[in-house]
Amino acid sequence: MPSNPTSRKSKVAILKTSPQSVRSDYHELMNLAGYQDVIARDADTGLKINISWHFFFPACSTTPWQLDGVIAAMLRDGYSKNLIHGCHNRTVVIDAHLGERENKQVDVTDAYGLRNVHLYEGEEWIPIREAVGDLADKFLCLNQVYPKGFSIPKRFIGENIIHLPTVKTHIFTTTTGAMKNAFGGLLNEHRHWTHPVIHETLVDLLMIQKKIHRGIFAVMDGTFAGDGPGPRCMIPYAKNVILASEDQVAIDAVAARLMGFDPLKDCKFIRLAHELGLGCGDTRELEIVGDTSALDEKWNFVGPFKEMTFASRMQHKIYWGALKKPIEWSLKTWMAPWSYSASVIYHDMYWYTRHSQKFMETCLKSDWGRLFENWGKVTETAEGFSDIPELAGEYKKNVGAMLKQAIKVLGTCIVEAPEVSSRRRTNRPSAEHEPVSKSS
């Protein structure tokens, strides 16, 4: 894999923003980072939306103003809306349809009249070696994790991809951003098998992206940023920054630095990708443009490991600790749905209904929280959003409705678990004619 050209430094753009200027700021940000040199106009462009939780929680998922800002910028610069689409994956514990509604992402794609592609619904997936050829021989770990191979979406080949992550921590990778945003989209069934080697997996996925995509770009939202045991049960803050880059390693490195981490020491996936020449993870070697003073802010995040939730502690024990030998094997058998059920019960039924309100309260009262609450009801301008009510409405949590939704997700994660659905397809005479997977 070739290294970055020595004649040109990787560039990361960073801007401070506000609701009143966020549309024009996203346009400026993307052009500062040179997206028009990367995203071909004659190729379809997937906006890879991030949903880390199907319930709204600040910093978890792509914000509506992030998605809106990217679309508005592209249309302003002459890209055809017929060649732009929202792109979603799902996981065994996240309902993407519920998530795009609760996070108001579908409101944005519908408002612009864009296609909204769910990769698990009728899309063809093809064997990895058919897609990337001999590049598969260079993978750090995926050949060992999947000795029989794996598949990726055929539609990705030749498409542009713009990743839309947020600035946040992660219990597996310390931080998560552009590189990990490819995780759900590129790996089909059994992606949880890669958790013990998650850092190497992200590097392999970046190799794949560089091979198959016409152009790769990332636009990261840090209007909200999440600390603690992410990507769900976090301590969110309003930070008012946005970032963009064509270098997925570089943008993740800058985000890690903002949060107070050393990218090359604290984030193994960044270091591995940097050493392999897949991008630049050393922020001293980057060209940083825009509001560079934002990098001088001291966020001093404590990170994901200081106060872990019960669920995150158990995950660490299963993948890397005392429970690895007695339990991890079950995650590769028909018994694996026990873990999906446990996750939904803990995160959706217990943690969110009991703890989310106190953690979200400050962010909900911020400018961004009030914009989210009133999305679709405020005055829209070419620059951003105005006439946002001064006082946030009281956050009212309908526990009954949430539990009902959680029970539905619980049922879906069992019925549509790869271990269950694959057995069901195998037992059907016409299985070979059916889509790879069904809607969630």
Which terms would index this structure?
Rossmann fold, two-stranded antiparallel sheet, 14 strands, ten-stranded mixed β-sheet, single chain, 38% helix, alpha/beta, 17 helices, disordered C terminus, globular, 440 residues
Structural account:
With 440 residues, the protein is an alpha/beta fold. It has a domain at 11-308: Rossmann fold (3-Layer(aba) Sandwich). Helices cover 38% and strands 16% of the residues. It has helices at residues 22-32, 64-76, 96-102, 105-112, 128-132, 142-145, 183-186, 198-212, 248-259, 263-266, 268-275, 310-320, 324-327, 337-365, 367-373, 399-415, 418-426, and strands at 11-16, 45-49, 84-88, 115-118, 125-127, 151-153, 160-164, 166-170, 174-176, 215-227, 235-245, 287-290, 379-380, 385-386. The strands form three sheets. Strands 1, 2, 3, 4, 7, 8, 9, 10, 11 and 12 form a ten-stranded mixed β-sheet that branches. A two-stranded antiparallel ribbon has the order 5-6. The longest helix is centred in the last third of the chain and has 29 residues, at 337-365. Residues 1-6 and 425-440 have low confidence and may be disordered.
- Helical amount among residues, as a percent range? 25-40%
Rg, please? 21 Å
The beta-strand count equals 14
CATH architecture of the domain at 11-308: 3-Layer(aba) Sandwich
How far apart are the termini? 37 Å
- Number of H/I helices: 17
Residue share in β-strands: 15-25%
Largest sheet: 10 strands, mixed
How would you describe the shape?
globular
Structural class: alpha/beta
**Named CATH topology of the domain at 11-308:** Rossmann fold
CATH class of the domain at 11-308: Alpha Beta
- Which runs of at least 5 residues are low in confidence (pLDDT < 50)? 1-6, 425-440
Mean pLDDT score: 90
